[in-house]
From TrEMBL:
EC number: 6.1.1.21
Superkingdom, natural source: Bacteria
Keywords, sorted A to Z: Aminoacyl-tRNA synthetase, ATP-binding, Cytoplasm, Ligase, Nucleotide-binding, Protein biosynthesis
Gene3D superfamilies noted in UniProt: Anticodon-binding domain, Bira Bifunctional Protein, Domain 2
UniProt organism field: Hydrogenophaga atypica
Domain Aminoacyl-transfer RNA synthetases class-II family profile: 25-335
Subcellular localization, as worded in the UniProt entry: Cytoplasm
Family listed: Belongs to the class-II aminoacyl-tRNA synthetase family.
Protein known as: Histidine--tRNA ligase
RNA-binding found in the keyword field: no
InterPro entries registered for this protein in UniProt: aa-tRNA-synth_II (IPR006195), aa-tRNA-synth_II/BPL/LPL (IPR045864), Anticodon-bd (IPR004154), Anticodon-bd_dom_sf (IPR036621), His-tRNA-ligase (IPR015807), HisRS-like_core (IPR041715), HisRS/HisZ (IPR004516)
Length: 429
């Protein structure tokens, strides 16, 4: 017997009925994106490694420790399974000159890959939905993206999600803050853990995001980036906040919010929840005006966010907001395989009319008894049984039997199509 193979650790199969929840969520997102004018974009899963090294930053955790990077055996290219979506969107916008006629609003959804320790809400293959507004200076578009996310929470019925915001200013301002931050941390070097000491001179801003309780007092006393912002950065931040206030959006300014990619500037934000433990960030993003230039394009403003699909589904589950898995409207009971030539056209006509129908199929010993078929019909979750018995077929009719209580709306939607089954049966014999 061949050795049994299993999925790669942290890369999960998603089967029914769970997959129905994914489809439901994706449909909700597509509809909302369309209402906001965001168009779907699909990028390759594999990109040049240099795209992420230059775009995310050489000393970020993603590039240093988490990327699935490899050399193509056929031509020696250095490639990477995408760890996030923004860099690929910007690469495509540059390559195809997407902004020649003005800004673009795009969204994507699909798998991303990071070599992490798998845990609840954090997997090696995970799925993101991203919304990117390219070519817009903002901060009105920054607010639009916040409202887009808020409307999604409302559509899904989610509660307990809070918004945190900050400004990272511009590169020169961050440079001045970085120097002050290093001086502060150097003066207390004995209090830094190993990770912080490693980052001290390469990416000290990320030390502010430490989860180490022993370093919290040191981080709280560190110089605040907000104190280094110039007039233009403060104007952008103040206008952004004023627009959020005008829309009644509640938020908290978090001066330690820095995000994990080097490409961010000015506005950054996270939507967080306390219900998912350490994986409490469900959606995050910000402005990345310098990314186009970093990866070889003309300078262009841009802002966007990404949400974790697995985390949103976990939150929906914890709040009992997931819909009941969809079931078939009807189950076709066929006692005799000889009548299948008459049955199949009827079922096809029903499906074309919008009725979801499961057909009983023959086993090794034939179609099985009516009793066994009714058991399968009931187990299927279908609301009705369509009975193609000898008497019904002889008369060109179909019997319709309710299998469970159905609400009035379902009956109103399906009754007409189900009633027409007999007519179709007669006309198609």
């Amino acid at each position: 017997m061949a050795e049994k193979l299993s999925a790669v650790k942290g890369m999960n199969d998603i089967a029914a009925p769970e997959s129905a929840h994914w489809e439901w969520l994706e449909d909700k997102i597509r509809q909302l994106m369309a209402r906001y004018g965001y168009r779907n974009f699909r990028a390759p899963i594999v990109e040049p490694t240099a795209l992420f090294v230059r775009g995310l930053g050489e000393v970020t955790d993603i590039v240093e420790k988490e990327m699935y990077a490899f050399e193509d055996k056929l031509n020696g290219e250095h490639l990477t399974l995408r760890p996030e979506g923004t860099a690929g969107v910007v690469r495509a916008a540059i390559e195809h000159n997407m902004l020649y006629d003005g800004g673009k609003r795009l969204y994507y959804m699909g798998p991303m890959f990071r070599h992490e320790r798998p845990q609840r809400g954090r997997y090696r293959q995970f799925h993101q939905v991203g919304a990117e507004a390219l070519g817009f200076v903002g901060p009105d578009v920054d607010v639009e993206l916040i409202l887009l996310a808020c409307d999604l929470w409302d559509e899904l019925g989610l509660t307990g999600i809070t918004l945190e915001i900050n400004s990272l200013g511009q590169p020169a301002e961050r440079k001045a803050h970085r120097e002050a931050l290093i001086r502060h941390l150097e003066a207390h070097k004995d209090q830094l853990d190993a990770d912080a000491q490693r980052r001290l001179y390469t990416n000290p801003l990320r030390i502010l995001d430490t989860k180490n309780p022993a370093m919290q007092a040191l981080v709280e006393a560190a110089p605040k980036l907000m104190d280094f912002l110039g007039a233009e950065s403060l104007k952008h931040f103040d206008t952004w906040r004023a627009l959020l206030d005008a829309q009644g959006v509640t938020y908290r300014i978090n001066p330690r919010l820095v995000r994990g990619m080097d490409y961010y500037n000015l506005s950054v934000f996270e939507f967080v929840t306390t219900e998912l433990g350490s994986q409490g960030t469900v959606c995050a993003g910000g402005r990345y005006d310098g990314l186009f230039e970093q990866i070889g394009g003309k300078p262009s403003p841009a802002v966007g966010w990404a949400l974790g699909v697995e985390r949103i589904l976990e939150l929906l589950k914890s709040q009992n907001r997931l819909p009941t898995a969809p079931v078939a409207d009807a189950y076709a009971i066929v006692p005799d395989a000889a009548v299948l030539p008459q049955v199949l056209p009827v079922l096809r006509a029903l499906r074309r009319a919008g009725v979801a129908v499961l057909m009983h199929t023959a086993g090794a010993e034939g179609m099985g008894s009516m009793k066994s078929q009714f058991k399968k019909a009931d187990a299927s979750g279908a609301r009705f049984a369509l009975i193609f018995g000898p008497d019904e077929v002889a008369q060109g009719q179909v019997s319709v039997k309710p299998l469970r209580a159905v609400d009035g709306q379902v009956v109103a939607q399906r009754a007409e199509a189900l009633a027409d089954a007999a007519h179709w049966a007669a006309s198609l014999r």
